[in-house]
Amino acid sequence: MPSTRASGRPRYGTLVIVGGHEDKTGERVIHRALVHRLGGGGLAIATVASEQPDALWREYAALFRTLGVADVRHLAIASRAEADAPEAMAALDGVRGVFFTGGDQLRITGLLGGTLAAERIRDVYETGGLVGGTSAGASVMSVTMLVSGAAEESHRLGGSLRMAPGLGLLPDVIVDQHFAERGRVGRLLGAVAQNPTILGVGIDENTAVLVEQAPDAPCFRVVGEGGVFVVDGQGASYTNVSEEEENRTLSLFGVRLHVLSQGDEFDLASRTPTNHPAEEVDAALGLRDGAS
């Protein structure tokens, strides 16, 4: 399939960005939403981030087949050479979606960056397909990704916060996962303080955002049982990020914080949330009245 970048007319698809530890045995709302948007196409499970790829492949293959995906393939890459190999191209040939499992996000970018596999995954997305990821697979969606940083405490200047280039599918946003469960608000504020033009999006476990980047109305919708925290620093009036000595605590004034739950939407262009009943998602996925 030719890349739309050659014609300059990308038609972006959907990003499914999951905060980790998604429900795989109950109603599986997040996976149902992913399958619904897949529209009957093939799905490649990318276990690149994990040091136990075979176990994750078996788990996710069984899950998605149970939910009706007939064509499920394993994108298993353990070296950059493998990311350029015919086997990787065969695993991605003709698929409608790619889903990254958890692990270490630097393994994903380190093994895929600049390879044929990365080009093909971008092509899937830019021709209207789906790219998703959970935990580490969520962090890599953005242009700049969070790699590490102290949690459960206020951000310290010059501390352990570490960022790196991601896959670049989601501009002007930085994603953090396992958000409330691991107390990561401090490090997300630290990331936004360093570049207030970007939105910080913190996603709880068993929660996802479904991102649609239509040129006229880029937005995301929340699916799952937890919350999504949006930190908007564009209107910040002050930060000491470049003024104080290292190990001082971050100051950041005038930041906006939104908390969204299932059904709610966020307009990425206007940076405004809109409330919607959680039941809308359940009904769309055939889960009303607890049906499974």
TrEMBL record:
UniProt keywords, alphabetically: Hydrolase, Protease, Serine protease
Keyword check for Protease: yes
GO biological process, one term: proteolysis
GO MF entries: peptidyl-dipeptidase activity; serine-type peptidase activity
Reaction(s) the record says it catalyses: [L-4-(L-arginin-2-N-yl)aspartate](n) + H2O = [L-4-(L-arginin-2-N-yl)aspartate](n-1) + L-4-(L-arginin-2-N-yl)aspartate
Active-site residues annotated for this sequence: S135, H178, E205
UniProt-listed Enzyme Commission number(s): 3.4.15.6
Broad class of enzyme this protein falls into: hydrolase
The family this protein is said to belong to: Belongs to the peptidase S51 family.
Protein name: Cyanophycinase
